[in-house]
Amino acid sequence: MLESARSRLKAWIVAGVGTAAAIAVAGVLGAFAARHEPLPALAPAGRIETGQWLLRPLKAYATAEKYTYGALLRPGGKALVLELEMTNRTAKSTKDYFDLLQASQKTVDPATKPFIVLTRDSTMSPELHPGMPERMAYIWQLPDGAAVPASFNLTVISKTYKPRDNLYGLPGWFNPTPIGTMTIPVGAGPDGADMQP
Fold this sequence. Notes:
The protein is of the alpha+beta class. The chain has one helix at residues 2-34; strands at residues 48-49, 53-63, 67-68, 71-72, 79-88, 101-103, 115-118, 123-124, 134-141, 151-162, 172-185. The chain contains one helix and eleven strands. It folds into two domains: 1-35; 48-185.
């Protein structure tokens, strides 16, 4: 009887020590996992793969024109424009590019979405067809009275393809994740040359 009580007590102590050790290890691993590694810097004149899209930034500039590729600016307002070549790498036409680029908080209000325009005919937010590179313009309106920056920072977002999502069992692109940042020099106007790769 005494022997079985001792063995039970020993088992509880071992289990308690094991549980405490497991909690301590989980806490240490959690602390390491919580550390965020900085995002890689992407070359602004290179090609960038984001899953759905192949991007090639071309040029960035500021404008105070009332209309920029058909997008109407506020009276007296200024905008930052990023022109880039975009190629749809998927099997069907899509306009799933609204959250592809996020401008830094220092430059524009992050709650402000850009106008996105096809430059060749000023079509707003068109569907882009598979495998056909198109020149697009992302147009962010600057806050009133804001100075035009010499450069601006963008975060590039990628999504992952799933043949079946968990909710509807349908294919699609999910889980938007930042894959890198790039700093784009801001030129004087739309007539400047494209960046060289």
